[in-house]
Structure formats: structure tokens, C-alpha cells
Design a protein that fits this description.
337 residues; alpha/beta; six-stranded parallel beta sheet; 40% helix; binds guanosine-5'-monophosphate; binds manganese (II) ion
Length: 337
């Protein structure tokens, strides 16, 4: 991070502050890991800090150090609102548009707190007074590491190291996406020295499938379809299929990546029906130059990164699959076929 930005952070944190940290809704390993690490650091350095998540997070993250103290807006709306109104500083982590925090957006917008964004998605919004945004970074956790190690490296303990390691691991697809750099691995080395245990973290995140979740993966793989002529696959999961496998939040995390493990495939998508919200939630993953951030923005009200993005459709599942097929056929020239 550059000198000027570091000075802005130092100035903001020079005296003890009341701080609220907000990750995006449906927080993932990176959103939670970066929030928990920053929160622990801020508390250790004398601030009154807490995390408010817009909603619940999946079970495979509910072991992370410090997560018990997290306040969920969906359960404690009044208390959360009060804390945001009283805050001196609001950090927003792992997103860059306030629409990614649902009902919290208006509270944050109206708050007089100093707003600070730390994020690695494309096209940042302009709601923050301090914007630490780098879309080349593989994770927000990597950025939080750069920040807190510049502020006070000695404060990084095993809990902070574990949270940052987890977010880097989950957002880089276990260190294999192109955003993984030599610097990423240097940071991981430091985190291990500080007490992060790779084998334990890996097991807690990846080897904790329930029987139902593994069966749901079977259903998803059975539903995999290849689009003729172009290297594109998609998976659908209906609400009925989710119910049959006793679906719990987070169960479908990572399923979309199986599409990309097929030889030659450069775009994989999963479409998941959510009857309650009357939407189809979509996740896009690509290899190489096909920009799913642009694609999600253009066709499915979404966004994210070049090789990983999300979006939403308000049609039914079959119609969404048809619309997706039309959309990728429209972009056929991008697949060099
Ligand atoms: P996932 O597919 O794992 O939900 O998300 C992949 C990436 O796209 C993440 O970085 C996530 O923050 C972003 N993303 C997911 N859904 C949306 C969405 O609806 N809108 C935007 N702008 N980004 C999204
Ligand atoms: Mn992230």
C-alpha cells in the first residue's frame, strides 16, 4: 500500500475510536476473515471495535477465531443500527457498492462516521472517505495483512494469522487462481510463522461436508450441461432439489468450480433457485480472458472479478438457463472457437 494511504489510516486511528466493521451479505471466508483479523487488531491496539454482518454465514466458517462476538443485523437490527449511528469509523470490507449490504446501506449512508473501504473488486463506488481498493489483489485478507503489518506487525498473533490465512485460501481457490503471487506466498509464510496451521484450516473449511451436502453435490454434477460449440458448462439446482437434500446455507459453496475442472472448459456457471427471495442466484467462474465481471454486469445484474463473479436472475430456472445460453452465444466470439 502507498505512503499516502498508510498515513490516512494512521491519522484515522491515532486516538481510540468507536469502530464498526461490515463485510458483505452472505459473507464468505475472505469477508469474514478480513473482518475478524482487522477487528482483533483494532481491539488489541486500543479501539472499541465490533463486526456487524448483514445476515448469517455458513457453518463451515463458524469456528473462526473471534466469530462468536459477531453481531448479525438480521437478528439484532436495532442494536446494530445504534452501533452504526454511534460509530466514529465504519470499515466496509470485501465489497465496494453499498447495495451489497442490503438494509444496512441506508444506515451507513446516513451515518456521520468516517467511512473506509478495503476491497479487491472491480469498479469501486465512491461512498468512502478512505478507499483502499486494489482489484489485482486475490483477497481482501491480503490487503488487511498489508495494512496491519504496516501499522504494527508485532500485533499479528495466531488468531489474526488464522483468519487472514483462511480468507486468502478461500478467495484464491487454495492458491491456484492467477491472482496468487509471490507476495501472496510470502504473506502465507509469515502467517504460518505467526501460528496459522494450514492443515487444520484446510480441514475445517473443506473436509466438513455433511452427508446431505455431498449428495447435493451429486445432484449438481448430474445436472451439469455443456453448451454446444463453445467451452461453457452450467449447473442448475432447483429449490426442490435443495429441499430433498436438506439444504443449509453455504452447502453449494465451491460447486461451480467442478465445471471448470472439465478439460477445455473456460466458463462455468451455477444457477440456484431461491423460492423465498424469488430469485435465481448465479455464480460465474472463468479461466483466461473471458471477463465474468463484465458478463455478470451486462446480463445478470451482478459483478465481481474477471474470473469470479455473481449475479441474479428474476426469471424461473428454465428461463434463466435459456437466457444464459443466449447470452453466451451472443458472446461466442470471445471463446475463440
Ligand atoms: P460467488 O459466486 O462466490 O457468490 O461470488 C463471486 C464473486 O462475485 C465474489 O467476489 C462476490 O463478492 C461477487 N459477487 C457475487 N454476487 C454478486 C452480485 O450479485 N453482485 C456483485 N456486484 N458482485 C457479486
Ligand atoms: Mn474477497
Amino acid at each position: 500500500m502507498n505512503e499516502q494511504l498508510l498515513e490516512a489510516f494512521q491519522k484515522a486511528l491515532i486516538t481510540p475510536k468507536k469502530i464498526v466493521i461490515i463485510p458483505h451479505k452472505n459473507p464468505d471466508g475472505d469477508a469474514l476473515g478480513s473482518s475478524l483479523a482487522l477487528n482483533a487488531f483494532l481491539i488489541k491496539t486500543g479501539h472499541d471495535s465490533r463486526i456487524i454482518t448483514p445476515n448469517e454465514y455458513p457453518e463451515f466458517l463458524d469456528w473462526m477465531p473471534g466469530q462468536r462476538e459477531i453481531i448479525k443485523f438480521s437478528q439484532l437490527a436495532d442494536e446494530s443500527t445504534q452501533l452504526m449511528e454511534d460509530a466514529d469509523i465504519i470499515f466496509t470490507l470485501d465489497f465496494n457498492q453499498l447495495s451489497r449490504i442490503n438494509q444496512l446501506a441506508s444506515v451507513v449512508e446516513q451515518s456521520d462516521a468516517l467511512k473506509i473501504m478495503i476491497d479487491h473488486h472491480e469498479n469501486p463506488g465512491d461512498y468512502a472517505s478512505i478507499t483502499y481498493s486494489e482489484s489485482s489483489k486475490g483477497s481482501t485478507c491480503e490487503m488487511v495483512f498489508e495494512l496491519i503489518s504496516s501499522l504494527d506487525h508485532d500485533q499479528i498473533d495466531d488468531a489474526i494469522a488464522t483468519c487472514i490465512y483462511t480468507g486468502i485460501m478461500t478467495d484464491t481457490g487454495s492458491f491456484r487462481f492467477p491472482s496468487t503471487t509471490a507476495r501472496t506466498h510470502q504473506i502465507l509464510g509469515t502467517l504460518i510463522k505467526k501460528g496459522a496451521q494450514p492443515h487444520t484450516i484446510h480441514q475445517k473449511i473443506y473436509d466438513t461436508y455433511s452427508f446431505n451436502r455431498l449428495q447435493l453435490l451429486g445432484t449438481a454434477l448430474n445436472n451439469l450441461k455443456k453448451i454446444d460449440e463453445i467451452p461453457v458448462v452450467y449447473i442448475t439446482l432447483s429449490q426442490k432439489e435443495l429441499n430433498q437434500n436438506n439444504f443449509k446455507k453455504g452447502d453449494t459453496e465451491g460447486f461451480v468450480n467442478y465445471g471448470l475442472s472439465l478439460m477445455g472448459i473456460t466458463l462455468a456457471v451455477i444457477m440456484i433457485e431461491n423460492e423465498k427471495e424469488k430469485i435465481i442466484k448465479m455464480s460465474f467462474r472463468s479461466k483466461g480472458s473471458f471477463d465474468v465481471n463484465q458478463f455478470a454486469k451486462k446480463y445478470f445484474n451482478g459483478g465481481g472479478h474477471i474470473n469470479a463473479a455473481g449475479g441474479v436472475s428474476y426469471l424461473n430456472l428454465d428461463e434463466t438457463a435459456a437466457q444464459f445460453t443466449n447470452a453466451v452465444m451472443h458472446e461466442k466470439s470471445q471463446f475463440n472457437v
